[in-house]
Amino acid sequence: MPLPILALAIASFCIGTTEFVIMGLLPEVAADLGVSIPHAGLLVTGYALGVVVGAPIIAIATASLPRKPVLVGLAMLFVIGNFLCAIAPNYWMLMVARVFTAFGHGAFFGIGSVVAANLVPRHKRASAIALLFAGLTLANILGVPLGTALGEAYGWRSTFFAVVAIGIAAVIAIAFLVPAAKDTDKGTGILSEIRVLGKLQVWLAMLISALASGSLFAVFTYIKPILTDVSGLPASSVTWVLLLFGAGITLGNILGGRLADWKLMPTVIGSLLALVFVYIVFAGISTYQFAAIAGVFLWGLIFFIAIPPLQMRVVETAGDAPNLAATLNQSAFNVGNAAGAWIGGVALTFGVSYQNLPYVASLLAATGLAVATWSMLLDRKQYREKALSEEGQGLGLEPLAGV
Question: Is the pTM of this model over 0.90?
Fold first, then answer.
């Protein structure tokens, strides 16, 4: 891993741990602050909303600034935010600190993706983005369980102090390892960034991201009752199965980057098609313990194969002003997270069983597949029109309108 991207990955590990570790500490947080566990669970929702709202605000505010100082500033924001979480005297101060911390999440991954892609040759750009996201996937394998264990042993505040220490290391690493900004590493300005949002392909890429993420959380939100009530696994085994899921997404992240460097849109389409198939099969095998465990690993692997190419797709379709679009794609993922969990809950309310919930997810993934296929067909149409135009100009002919 190139050292500058390693520095970005350390920060993404810190961010991933910050986002997800609270789920394992809800009982401790609720007991210490005198609120119910469902009330404490809103800290997860607050963080997600902070990502959605904060991402475009930060991206627009920093549109004209050099990217390296922005990344250092965003990493410092996480250090300050986690410190405020650690010392929060009550529930509402903790909520405010969580939302404040989340404001930098989407912008860091959006701008970090652009920086990582620019640090390597063009044919390795998706792999570079995958390396950035490797910190996020490792947070699910190492950061969350270790942070949960630390919080259970020494109090939930100790976990946030530990994240502060990692965040300080990330700030130092970015400051010293990421190359100094060049003219090409600066934002292109607010108007250029906003103008990118007029491109249909940018919106289609973000829609695919939201649908893919929605398919995941329509099932993953309810994975514990699926594994215990449908698969018959003891509750104590769920943590280990989720660690296996984390191993799957880590491997999928690496594969996704390499495949996307080879064929970008075919990788997106192929992974979504495989994801539809995995959901359908998982619904059928979820009553068998070992098959369900294997299915969870395969599910994580296939899902995360799509993540680096989707982020790379947004960067490419945005052209010379990718900061806002790449950042908004992180908002799209979080909108998908919230929508998927809500859709899964609505399905359960209307009588869909836990075993059949993956069929709902397969519909969301299939919709994403349809959008991705349409997007690729539009690419090919545009390529043909450009080729015909260039051919006509070479023959001294005016391009035909509507060809």
Answer: no
